[in-house]
Amino acid sequence: MPVFGLDENRISFPNPTLAREDGLLAVGGDLSVERLLLAYTHGIFPWYNPGDEILWWCPKERFVIFPKEIHVSRSMNKYMKKHNIHLQLNRDFADTMHRCRMKREVEGTWISDEMEEAYQRLHKAGYAVSVEVFEDGELAGGFYGVLIGKCFFGESMFSEKENGSKTALILFARLLEQHRFLFIDCQFHTEHLESMGGRYISWEEYERMLQEGTTL
């Protein structure tokens, strides 16, 4: 199946179901707020190496966490009861995204200057958010992602203390459940996220919830 080339001067994407088996759909275009919003509301996201052309992905099976299904292990429950935990949103979006980048610099990261600038624009437009958790008054960890309607699309996490990002995800999932969010899109499977309740759903189920939950 071909990979579609995008025109920088035209904000559009091919049908998401035309993605290759590995999830790759298109190449090129730009990271404007308008294009990013169009992408996320159709289950598409950018992921590529710094310096390369922009690659757009849309996996046919989606790995998600339903907020009410967030898994809290006995050890995590004990840990959270032991400490004074405080969740904060948008403490400093740019700082949180950069911390996510720095935690992955050694092994390689897709978070380039271009990506940081693009998601900061998306944040200023009201669609990208950062989530931070404080443990006993100190920053412990967090993550950032895109929030549209009743859907959250996770991008990257960081931890400054043990269990920092886990605690942030648990508390955020509980907050999303209270506000009747439909899902947290994890984009790709990891054992870490599976241990916290992540699971695969079909494209058909994902698309149905996406249409229901994203309203611009």
Short description:
This protein has helices at 33-40, 74-82, 93-103, 113-124, 164-178, 191-195, 203-213; strands at residues 4-6, 24-28, 45-46, 55-57, 61-65, 85-89, 128-135, 138-148, 151-159, 183-185, 199-202. With 216 residues, it is of the alpha+beta class.
Task: Annotate the secondary structure layout.
Elements: E1 4-6, E2 24-28, H1 33-40, E3 45-46, E4 55-57, E5 61-65, H2 74-82, E6 85-89, H3 93-103, H4 113-124, E7 128-135, E8 138-148, E9 151-159, H5 164-178, E10 183-185, H6 191-195, E11 199-202, H7 203-213
Parallel strand pairs: 1-2, 9-10
Antiparallel strand pairs: 2-4, 3-4, 5-10, 5-11, 6-7, 7-8, 8-9
Describe the model.
The protein is α+β, with helices and mostly antiparallel strands. It has two domains: 4-60, Alpha-Beta Plaits (2-Layer Sandwich); 63-213, Leucyl/phenylalanyl-tRNA-protein transferase, C-terminal domain (Aminopeptidase), CATH 3.40.630.70. 33% of the residues lie in helices and 27% in strands. The protein contains seven helices and eleven strands. The chain has helices spanning 33-40, 74-82, 93-103, 113-124, 164-178, 191-195, 203-213; strands spanning 4-6, 24-28, 45-46, 55-57, 61-65, 85-89, 128-135, 138-148, 151-159, 183-185, 199-202. The strands form two sheets. A seven-stranded mixed β-sheet has the order 6-7-8-9-10-5-11, with helices on both faces. Strand 8 (138-148) and strand 9 form a beta hairpin. The longest helix is centred in the last third of the chain and has 15 residues, at 164-178. It is globular, with a radius of gyration of 17 Å. The model has no long low-confidence stretch (mean pLDDT 94).
